[in-house]
Amino acid sequence: MIVQVEKAISLNDLKPVQGGGESVDLEKFDKKEVEIESAKIEQVPSQYSETKTQWVLLVKSKVLATIGEGEEKIEFRASELFNLMQDKEGKLLGYPEAEGSNLCKFMKDIKAKNPAEIIGKKALIKSYPKGEKTYLKFRY
Asked: How many Å apart are CA 28 and CA 85, to the nearest integer?
């Protein structure tokens, strides 16, 4: 039986290598500037609304990274939901004009006068861990 003994390696000689399988380190996108690709109005489930739904503005960046192909393809981008104003019956009224609202802070940061001007603007993003996953959203 032949036993192979490795000689000690200096920590200075230890190099990083790619792990098995595809993955994307989303933390590398923290504080990066991206272009906003879309902003659209949607209605989502909400436990805080009398109608159990909430109108939101869904804002997405351009794709930052992709793994896989075809039906297995996963695209990574920054995205965020901004609450819109609605009445008690769930009818969409508009967007909040208060300077303290997240949407107004975001629009001020990217120099958009209204939601129609968001697409095509540049925004900084941040990565944040939630549980075992990491997500990308906008900084403002």
From this structure: 35
Model confidence pLDDT, tens digit, residues 71-101:
889 999 999 999 999 999 999 999 999 989 9
Domain range enclosing 57: 24-138
What predicted TM-score, i.e. pTM, was given to this entire model? 0.80
Query: Whose CA is closest to 85, among 64, 118, 115?
Result: 115
Cβ atoms of residues 68 and 22 within 8 Å:
yes
Place of tokens 């933390």: 27
Q: Are 42 and 53 in contact (CB under 8 A)?
A: no
Q: Based on the structure, what is the number of domains in the chain?
A: 1
Instruction: Tell me, yes or no, whether 12 lies in a domain.
Output: no
122: Cβ contacts below 8 Å, ≥ 6 apart: 33, 34, 35, 36, 110
Query: 54 Cβ partners below 8 Å, 6+ apart?
Result: 43, 44, 45, 46, 48, 83, 84, 86
* Terminal Cα distance for the chain, rounded: 64
Q: Which of 5, 4, 103 has the alpha carbon at shortest distance from 57?
A: 103
